[in-house]
Amino acid sequence: MRNIVNFNSDWLFSKSTEGIPSAAPAECEQISLPHTWNATDGQDGGNDYHRGTCCYAKQFAKADLPQTDRIYLEIKGANSSAEVYLNGTKLASHDGGYSTWRVDMTDALKEDNLLIITVDNSPNDYVYPQMADFTFYGGLYRDVNIIGVSESHFDLDYYGAPGIKVTPEIKGNDAEIDIEVYVTNKKDGQTLRYTITDAEGNVVATETTDDTDEDFDIKNVHLWHGKKDPYLYTATVELLDGDTVLDNVSARFGCRTFKVDPEKGFFLNGESYPLRGVSRHQDRLGIGNALLHEHHEEDIELILEVGANTIRLAHYQHDQYFYDLCDEKGLVIWAEIPYISKHLPDGRKNTISQMTELVAQNYNHASIFFWGLSNEITMGGAEDPDLIENHKLLNDLVHKMDKTRLTTIAVVSMCGIDASYIKIPDLVSYNHYFGWYGGDTSMNGPWFDKFHAKYPNIPIGMSEYGCEALNWHNSDPKQGDYSEEYQAFYHEELIKQLFSRPYIWATHVWNMFDFGADARAEGGENGQNHKGLVTFDRKYKKDSFYAYKAWLSDEPFVHLCGKRYIDRVEDTTKVTVYSNQPEVELFANGKSLGKKTAADHFFYFDVPNAGETTLTAVAGEYKDESVIRKVDKFNEDYLLREKGAVLNWFDVTEPEGKLSINTPISEVLKTFRGKFVLVSFGRVIMKEMKSNSKSKEKSGGGFSISGFKFSPDLLKMLGGFSILRASSMLGMVNVSLTKEQLLSINKKLNKINKPKAKN
After folding, report:
1. Rounded mean pLDDT of the chain?
2. What CATH number does the domain located at 164-253 have?
3. Catalytic residue among 74, 305, 376, 585
């Protein structure tokens, strides 16, 4: 009988690998798993978190292991490459930091044993990811188990897969269930006992046979129907020798149908089911990616509270426990591999192995509907033949392994809609930040209309959109101010544009939670991406959280925005209330300011601001309170303060009527000489990226730098940026400009007249 023992306790950890593999490091600390060595330095900014090879060591006696024929070590996550040594002998290596893998230790075991696992998160050119806007935490950051099995057992060697594959097919009111198992060293006379039970534990089908592939019928099948009814069956298969159970495997599964209509969006079990949700990263403040089950559970509850019915699990395979929770809660999942940002000519093998692991390990999850091939992979250009071939191979691989689901990609905003690689997967989704990374919020809906008009038969979705917000506030929010008020405005506008277009097959907010991105230096708190609807520590739900709750949740509520924005200078201030109730009444110190209705769930009130005012929003039996206070001078605590900036905006010389690096890029591009300064700026960037390609003008508008085309659409999107703000985000692509480089560009711009305003 299979025996699984958790192996998380009593490890030694060291950043030194001296003496490996024959002895544990001399200098080490005692830890328990899960563990990452970047829980602090991977979130504090500077892009200087420790990346290298570290050592985990554990001593144990063979007598303490299950007394079985074979002993496997199961590692559920080691980022990003790892090697396993037992008693000085190398047993295995693995490239890819987000999937389960196993090692047969049986033949190398002694009575007393030293197990060493080296884990390496240092840069290379063949394991994904290598360039992305998140921290690549190193460590054994998920569970490690011992699995004891008999000589004859269900397979443990194929890409970390569970050894059982369940494929439901709906036929009218019934379902045909194909169950396939994979057995190692199956012997004559051994049989397999299949059992299917419903959610209540009742047996609905059973059979004992020699065959490893069997079909079963479930009459009047109970469908898995999203959040409304996430009904799960369980398939169990036992390997028998006579009446003795040698091994067993089981898998929960759901019976459902779905389709994506390019005109009408997503359908579940024949019913329209608009997919409106969020993306999620797997880390936390002060913890990194070494999450416990309780952390996953809190995340899923917050996602359910906001009302989402879909999650894009970015940008890699997540913990099996979280997929299990998604099955149970009825969430529709997009699962993907970390083929992201930068195509690696030597990385094809790794994309194939990571995709094989993703599909093989997660095939049985009812919640997974889409396999993601890549994310923003065309940052360096969309027509690289090797990149295109890599996508075709991945797409074919997925369809060969899984004929029941669809493939998709998340396309970087500046990629043209005619790019050939967009035609490879079944579905397409774009990452757009109009209204944050340049452009304005009004550009989002029309962009999708343009795509849909040209390619009406390609299902199009929005895989990322969002903007950053910290504890900064003002009554006149503007793009780039990192205020909670601008983030709320941004999402109000995006909700209205995206949710009103039924052909958009899915929308995924970037991001549900703030997350670690050690290269970032934005918003006054370095080392994090602050686009979350909830803070990194999960303790504060930003106002934008409630904007989505008003649209997506059935749980009645009312929310007063601006609770952290108390001191206000204006005599009359705007107060926003979100609710999914039809009518809201607002009271100021007990006096009614009137009732309002709002079809878009966003209620706006003009409130007299004098002295201290207690505001109470009432919607039916639900209420919420906040306080505002009249002040004569703006509270500087609400104003964005950059921490450790290379160059602050007020250190930049701006002669009257001249350009500077504080000038919006759109204004710089209106001047002939300014355009060439931008080309020079691009050369500085590419030099930092160790690229020597040429820059040149392009016909039809725009220009290119080192093969990266700055198209008219991209330039329009980036127009709202200043060069200084654009430079602050270059850490995301491993580029850091000095103060001297920026001042040199500014000096050139200071010689150029600003464009004359048109009458």
Report:
1. 93
2. 2.60.40.10
3. 376
